[in-house]
Amino acid sequence: MQPLIDNARTFGQRPEEFAKLAEGQSPQVLFITCSDSRVVPALITGARPGELFELRTAGNIVPPHTSQHPTSEAATIEYAVEVLGVRDIVVCGHSHCGAVGALVRGDDLTAVPAVRDWLAHATPRPAGAAEDPEVAEGVQAHVLTQLLRLRSYPCVQRRTAAGQLGLHAWYYEVHTGTVRTHRPQTDTFESL
How far apart are CA 92 and CA 41, in angstroms? Predict the structure, then answer.
């Protein structure tokens, strides 16, 4: 913890770098990814403060849209699309994902009921080899499922139909730093 505290102490000693941020934000991209500490969107994309709007959830899950029971994830998506006017949304899964790995293996999650119930939103259960520590196939299928679910949000539907919003599926390899994007033409994930 101490290195984090030390950095936080010196971080605010450069106010000239941050003064413009008080005027507001205008990110062009909503980046939906996992809460995993090894996935750092600003490092992956090179984004500076104010350039990337982030939604981080266990397993980069986009819950089903429902107007009866709004979620913080739905509110974040709606705010990014309707208020901030982002031009693109990236759903980024990653190798060695504990959430997707648990789903692929069919792990017993009764000891962590909140995790178990949250991961129920990931359905259908991602395919993949249970012995693959990267769970690449499962994560990639899972990312595409979340992207499909994202398309069911009314604000996303409107903006994509109008050609004002692009949707992207990414897969980040924790062990190499490689980022792959889904190519619909070939239905494969290829290096950017």
Answer: 9
Kindly state the DSSP code that residue 79 receives in the 8-state scheme. Answer: I
Our CA angle for 28, 31, 36, nearest 5°, is: 155
Nearest to 149 by CA among 38, 85, 59: 59
Write out the binding residues.
34, 36, 94, 97
Closest CA to 33 of 22, 43, 23, 19: 43
* Rounded-to-integer distance, Cα 30 and Cα 73, Å: 12
Q: Which two tokens stand for residue 164?
A: 């004002």
73 is written with which tokens? 């994830």
- pLDDT, residue 13, reads 75
Tell me what the mean pLDDT of segment 29-52 comes to. Answer: 96
pLDDT band at 20 (very low <50, low <70, confident <90, very high): confident
DSSP-derived 3-state class of residue 40: coil
Enter the pTM of the model. 0.92
Tell me how far apart the alpha carbons of residues 80 and 156 are, in angstroms, rounded to a whole number: 10
Which residues carry a binding-site annotation for Zn(2+)? 34, 36, 94, 97
